[in-house]
Protein 1
Amino acid sequence: MARNNECIEERSSSYRVRLFYYDENGKRTSISETFPFKKYGTKQKAKDMAKQWRDRSKVEIANNMIIKEKHFTLDEVFNGMMELYQCSLGTKKKVLGTYNKYIKSYTKGETRFSDIKFDDIQKCLNNMCSIAKDDTIQRAKGVWKRLYQYAIAKEIVQRDETFNVITPKSDLITIKKKMETSFEEVMNVVNLIDCKIENHRDSILMQGALIIMWYTGMRPAEVFALDKNNIDLDSKSLYVCQSVGSTSTMQNTIKKTKNEYSMRHIPIIDELIPVLKTLIDNSISDLLFIRDNGEIMNGNFLSSVCQRLTNNVFRPYTIRHQFATRLMTTGIDPRTIQELMGHKESTITIGYARSNDMLKKEALRLLRVN
């Protein structure tokens, strides 16, 4: 190793600058910075940048402007980001899981954050292609972006290394989930719950939830947040204004709906009235879906029971997709369906609706006739 110029040390692949000075307490200390040849393109460019940093730092030392440099690790940046990241506990759990499983395991938590570059992030995401689905890879990229937003705001780094990162496609074959069901299938599950679930209140609540979903298309989280005050049997109207989920401080609690478009009035058809009356008569509070243990029933619980009773064949959320399909295939205009579903965009509503074999055969028949 050779020392060229004052305070600049030439190494095999970089220049290192180190300046010694006395702090306000009279203690001898130092600051340093490394300038890799690869990062700056050429050896000469790295040397020029090293000189600039040296000269600027000398001025700062002379004017008592120097601040002892602290190097932040990937873990430290992530922890700092999570402290400021305002989201629900459920979302935080997903972000933490993604970080630990895919980011930290590949890019080591003790790595100095400023040393992480574009190709490290790209390789991290590429490495996920054989083990994760597209939405998981997209989530990991989102976590990387949040890390850089925080690091730039805190002046830990100056540049967002995710800017040119390309989100790779997963190599895993995604099997499309079954999104069709029928009234007979739903009632079969209702009967299974009636026969197999020993807890009487849980049984009534789950049966009621499935039937409400069939006749209203509501999200499970919206159904389980229903309050007596949301239901007007005289005018046959049901008001959706809240849902069950997690907030930044609580799990499984009542909160606002997804957005303003999710707040809506849904007409109550005659077939639904006895179900709602049963739930109201059996309720132990204004909230209809309170279990014996005082907790609010939620979609995860209902889904796990339904899948267990049907050997993973039936998922409650399928009812919502079928609701959109039934309306679409009977000629209801998309705007009405969108408002009943509580969607912000009509394209989301169309995405929920599924075609079926009968419609496909009819389309081909008309094509042949024409």
Protein 2
Amino acid sequence: MSTMTARTYKNPFTLDGRVKVVPGVSNRKVDAVKGLLERHYAGDAIATATLHEALTSSDAIFNMTHLATLNFVPQYDMAPRVWSQIAGTRTVPDFKPVTLYSLNRSWTDGNGGSQVLSDHGAAPVIPEGTAYPYAYISGELAAGAGVVKRGFKTDWTLEARINDGLAALERLPSEMLEVSLDTEDADVWGALTTQKTAASNLLGGLVPGNAVAIPANAPFSRDAVIRAIIELSQRALNGRKIQVTGNFNLLVPTGQAVYVNFVLNQTLNAISTNPAAGTPEFLYQVNGGYNPLAGISVIESDWVTGTQWYLVPKPGATRRPVLERLDLRGYSTPQLFVENLAGNYVGGGTVSPFEGSFSADVITLKLRQFGGGVLWDGGIGICYSSGTGTA
């Protein structure tokens, strides 16, 4: 699985601007809360009592939340992500549907759409003394794809805080991490499974050396995967064939990777003649020989179910992106908030959020995260099979 290496921050207090500092939070106060927490974890009863007092009578809760975020973000960065093996990343400035501008034959003269570039996308030759022609690039809008806002709130009652002590806050970074990573998965796998169209479907047909045609939506097999590769190579976008210069990911339901890898690793050993059809027939064995499917990576996912399977070019294997996760500029990191609507004590003084809300004595925490996913061009760059064997 993909991982990110630990990074060094020039400003550890804000993680180089990724963590916003709210009023009441300072480096000194965060260090004080951190010291109390470390002593609390070590079993210092005085530190535990001091921390409880600080949380209910000062702005220590905001500093503790800031500290939890400082612990969360590096873990978030370095966490393994399966989705990064099948999708790239694109940063967008707003919530509008994303548009892809690409350097291909969509460059036209802007007057009736006449083609300016050659059939292979090359710029035209300019004879001596002649004017350069105008060419205008056009963007392609991905319908239904853009950044969305996700999140939730959770209430922690005053009684639960007293009974539970600081256990919930101790678990908060790890619990946030799990939710955030699952949210990223939903962005990518959701785009793959919901934005595909009929353009993605395995139509079926012949493969070299096999007289029997592969049916539409064929179940997984070596020949079905070969047929999917052939169909992808025959598809065209803006008049140009889709070329995969790297390799593919084969996406299958959870629990099937062992069997699928076994089938893919059978290698071509010899060619014989099918006595019934009188045509050449490939024979495969597990060891030795040439394997045309070597290099395909098998990835399991709960988002792929039943007999379904997907053949998807690896990120960067095509000049035009196929599947991407969307980041919102300036909001690439999930955020943790504490509601501060506790009111004031009679006679003055602000009530800590850890004393509960004004109306119900509950402490409300909120997680907010931005992201999205896009499968470009209606999924023409992937091959999908339901595995049913019927169109």
